[in-house]
């Protein structure tokens, strides 16, 4: 029964809570047991707060369980989110003593909704990297094959949900750091419109590109979770005062008449043929369901990654300048190298990159005059082996981290909402995924399209088979609250 609960979606767990077939305390016990069994393999959690979750669960009354769709539901958050009284390590030795004094906005919303925090999840140090490799807390592994990467930088959040340690998790997405690991682990990953979910109380990496993101098992759970964490915070300069939709109410609308943009450039190039085949089947299904497929052409992408990095590294350097002076020796080698790159970039480069980003936003907005959503593969490759440095496709060598986020990074610059979800299995036994992108603040539309696809069993992925795996990836430390 415990394994069945561990891999249940939130809606299913909520029905059992409402029917009093299980209590919040029992749910916490099930997931705490899963964490104890599989954290050494998955490396999902940096800090486990099962003791605090148990105390909170015991206090919930039947009336409390009616507060929201997540009342009584355990969840986890990437260890960039402040949770009052808990270490915020950011996956680094640098923040070994950073105990939060208050909740991040999204955590505050979940606490008010009656959700139960099981802990803080692992990540690439300070969110700098798409592989999720971490020398301090271990590198998260893929639930479908523990010899492969979970992806990053929200690697622990993806691993936590994929391994059945929690049914939902929060992450951050600066270049695909929620969507890519979700795609590699057979999950739903959503990057809402920039400003839709405030970043207050989240350790910054790049203010211009940072988004709070969500990982769940299903589209419905994602819609419910977005409805809780979305909102306006006047303390966050990027937050937008826009009404919050009841996203789940739109899921059953189907796709008839929906105009689906299919990129003619960049997004189907140098991609695993099996991923392309899966997306072709998705296109066919959407067409049969009444959607209209319309070709679209994106702006020249040749320098888009360079433009993104030209903004990322000076902003990261600005965020870390004080810590570099006081604790520079505690930074990992790769992040320290990135910060050094930030020191070499001129103000002229940064300003020019910001102007390019504004141009990308205008050009992408223009595409949405003719289409309602845009469909792309989520990643050009399946999850790569642990320790892999480069991948080769069509004779072109590419760094693994660049490949993982090649199709996601652009939409952090434009700020449009983007969703990744599974659409089948690769012959190597790993999930493949698609990406849906929508207009600003039209998360309901991409969720509705995703729900239509999720309803088709041809695009479903099996649960990972985890028991019997033996971890070889040694963790240095893990923190507990009790």
UniProtKB/TrEMBL annotation:
Database matches in InterPro entries: Amidase, Amidase_CS, Amidase_dom, AS_sf
Pfam families per UniProt: Amidase
UniProt keyword annotations, A-Z: Ligase, Transferase
Keyword tRNA processing: no
Keyword presence, Transferase: yes
Enzyme Commission number: 6.3.5.-
Residue stretches making up the Amidase domain: 26-447
A GO molecular-function annotation: transferase activity
Annotated Gene3D superfamilies: Amidase signature (AS) domain
Entry-linked PANTHER family: AMIDASE AMID-RELATED, TRANSAMIDASE
Name of the protein in question: Glutamyl-tRNA(Gln) amidotransferase subunit A
Gene: gatA_4
């Amino acid at each position: 029964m415990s394994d069945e609960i561990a891999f249940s979606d939130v809606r299913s767990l909520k029905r059992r809570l409402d029917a009093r077939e299980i209590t919040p305390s029992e749910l916490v016990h099930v997931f705490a047991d899963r964490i104890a069994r599989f954290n050494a393999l998955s490396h999902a959690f940096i800090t486990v707060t099962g003791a605090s979750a148990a105390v909170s669960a015991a206090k919930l009354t039947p009336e409390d369980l009616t507060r929201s769709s997540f009342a009584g539901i355990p969840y986890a958050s990437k260890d960039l989110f402040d949770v009052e009284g808990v270490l915020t390590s950011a996956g680094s030795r640098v923040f070994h003593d950073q105990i939060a004094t208050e909740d991040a906005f999204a955590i505050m919303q979940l606490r008010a909704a009656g959700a139960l925090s099981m802990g803080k999840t692992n990540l690439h140090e300070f969110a700098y990297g798409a592989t999720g490799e971490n020398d301090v807390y271990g590198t998260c592994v893929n639930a479908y094959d523990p010899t492969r990467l979970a992806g990053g930088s929200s690697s622990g959040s993806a691993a936590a949900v994929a391994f059945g340690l929690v049914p939902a998790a929060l992450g951050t997405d600066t270049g695909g750091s929620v969507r890519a690991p979700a795609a590699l682990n057979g999950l739903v990953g959503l990057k809402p419109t920039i400003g839709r979910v405030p970043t207050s109380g989240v350790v910054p990496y790049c203010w211009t590109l940072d988004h709070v993101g969500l990982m769940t098992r299903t589209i419905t759970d994602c819609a419910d979770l977005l409805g809780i964490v979305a909102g306006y915070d006047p303390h966050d300069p990027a937050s937008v005062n826009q009404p919050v939709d009841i996203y789940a109410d739109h899921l059953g609308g189907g796709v008839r008449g929906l105009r689906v943009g299919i990129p003619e450039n960049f997004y189907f190039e140098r991609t695993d043929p099996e991923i392309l085949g899966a997306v072709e089947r998705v296109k066919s299904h959407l067409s049969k369901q009444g959607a209209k497929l319309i070709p679209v052409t994106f702006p020249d992408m040749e320098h888009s990654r360079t433009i993104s990095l030209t903004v990322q590294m000076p902003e990261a350097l600005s965020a870390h300048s004080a810590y570099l002076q006081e604790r520079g020796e505690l930074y990992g080698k790769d992040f320290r190298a990135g910060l050094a790159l930030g020191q070499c970039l001129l103000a002229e480069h940064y300003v020019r990159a910001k102007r390019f980003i504004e141009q990308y936003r205008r050009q992408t907005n223009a595409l949405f005059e003719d289409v309602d959503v845009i469909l792309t593969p989520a990643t050009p490759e399946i999850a790569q082996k642990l320790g892999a440095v480069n991948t080769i496709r069509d004779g072109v060598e590419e760094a693994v981290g660049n490949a993982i986020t090649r199709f996601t990074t652009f939409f952090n610059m434009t700020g449009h909402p983007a969703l990744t979800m599974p659409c089948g299995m690769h012959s190597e036994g790993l999930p493949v995924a698609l990406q849906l992108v929508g207009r600003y603040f039209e998360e309901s539309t991409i969720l509705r399209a995703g729900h239509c696809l999720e309803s088709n069993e041809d695009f479903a992925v099996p649960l990972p088979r985890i028991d019997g795996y033996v971890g070889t990836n040694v963790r240095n430390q893990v923190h507990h609250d009790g």
